[in-house]
């Protein structure tokens, strides 16, 4: 018993000499195991994280299935077109299917035919000839929803160190789009901006942008009825164009003076142009000149033109009982400040009565060719002279 106690004491004594660090490691290891086991136990945070992961995986799986189903419909449609002899149409469908799923050829069941009633394939069945989509806005919104769990306006194609425009909030992007339209209602620039990507296309169809444009043209009392949207109202309702100049060419033959010998009398052909430039705030410019449009139109792009013969004024719309939209224009020469000379007792002048000329023009809106509201028909033209 004594020897046994000595051995035990020897072991204990030996442990006291060699195990201070080991005992500390054992304590840290046991604490780490306890923390690890507590993290593995199901709790509120664990359940939330698990649900989030499962939801993301489920949404990704649904996106892949939807993309694969859409590619399958496109591929089967291409097979039908190829069998019917329309090789060019078949190539387009093949290309679109391969862009969605590169190995769709090996996942196809050739025994089934494409379902025309499927939601994802209706845009193909409705317009087979030119592959156009009726509701492009809804289609792009659906595609952005399928691509990512968080709706992003756009994504950068190449990795850059600079901040991409997709990092901006949607509200800031909408301010940028309104700045592009500006007070001049440059909706053409807005349409060009919508061609950048699908996200910009959605932003360019924002109802607030088109509502503000309609209020600037027709006043704050206008309503979009009977149109379905503000954009449709701006495009369909008769109005003057702000992205160009209306040009009227007038030509006539005038008899000249008789020659000195009385043998002949000359005839002259006179040609001149009238230019009308409208602005969204109700202002208008009119210029009458014999110069051709090639040299005159660039000078009328802004209101700060230096042409002395330009007349400035305003216009208004009127819709009579005949359901025809008319435009009434009143223009006059801009008043110039004249320097008053000092009166002298040796110089007595009779004041010359000043005459103000104003031109009243009545026009009727019409369309010609493929463009809308690109013609104005003259109704009347008169000159009013006022002496002061």
TrEMBL record:
Keywords: Cytoplasm, TPR repeat, Ubl conjugation pathway
Subcellular localization(s) per the UniProt record: Cytoplasm
Broad class of where this protein is predominantly found: cytoplasm
Pathway connected to this protein: Protein modification; protein ubiquitination
UniProt domain F-box: residue ranges: 162-213
Entry's Gene Ontology cellular component terms: cytoplasm; SCF ubiquitin ligase complex
Gene3D superfamilies documented for this protein: 1.20.1280.50
Record GO biological process: protein ubiquitination; SCF-dependent proteasomal ubiquitin-dependent protein catabolic process
Annotated region (Disordered), positions in chain: 1-25
Entries under SUPFAM superfamilies matching the protein: F-box domain, MIT domain
Name assigned to this protein: F-box only protein 9
Gene: FBXO9
